[in-house]
Design brief:
The protein is mostly helical and 167 residues long. It is built from 10 helices and 2 strands. The chain folds into 2 domains: 61 residues, no CATH class; 96 residues. Strand 1 and strand 2 form a beta hairpin.
């Protein structure tokens, strides 16, 4: 079991980045944490069997943790930020009831799609769901760009990548 001091002694991870990364790995089931009396700092951590398997399988490791961003990731780097803005805008949208729930489900579907590595995004699916999101405002008093200002920017970023993939 490694303690926080063991990890920080290697200087591989700064103290301010340690907690976020450790809890991320725990949420993914790759490590287990022993929590002590000084939360949120952990007392010790150890790799799980899944974590060991991932480290031993270079192909799986590179799929989940790519070594460096490729051209596609570089081109689409701003999309997750735009999508998070869209999530906030959808949350404050003027829709109510079932229409609001449908909008929030569609936006969550987009978040799930964008959570995967960019090279595995299904662009046609993303474009279709963006159409659905925009369609929620077809009968509303406010047009979609006013209700969701980041939607046109998000659509442009996706369309640019679709055109680049075609070329």
């Amino acid at each position: 079991m490694a303690t926080p001091e063991d990890v920080m002694d290697d200087a591989a991870v700064a103290r301010e980045d340690l907690l976020a990364n450790v809890y991320y790995l725990q949420d993914r089931g790759l490590i287990e944490l022993l929590l002590g009396y000084n939360p949120p700092l952990f007392a010790a951590a150890r790799m799980t069997a899944d974590g060991i398997d991932m480290v031993e399988n270079a192909f799986e490791f590179n799929l989940r943790f790519p070594p460096a961003p490729g051209e596609t990731e570089e081109a689409l780097a701003g999309v997750p930020v735009l999508l998070e803005r869209l999530v906030q805008e959808a949350d404050f949208s003027p829709l109510d009831g079932e229409a609001r729930q449908a909008l929030l489900r569609d936006v969550q579907f987009l978040r799930d799609e964008v959570a995967r590595p960019a090279v595995r995004w299904r662009m046609q699916v993303i474009r279709t769901v963006l159409d659905w999101v925009e369609g929620h405002f077809a009968t509303a008093d406010e047009p979609a760009p006013a209700a969701l200002p980041s939607l046109p920017e998000l659509r442009k970023a996706i369309d640019r990548q679709v055109e680049a993939d075609r070329a």
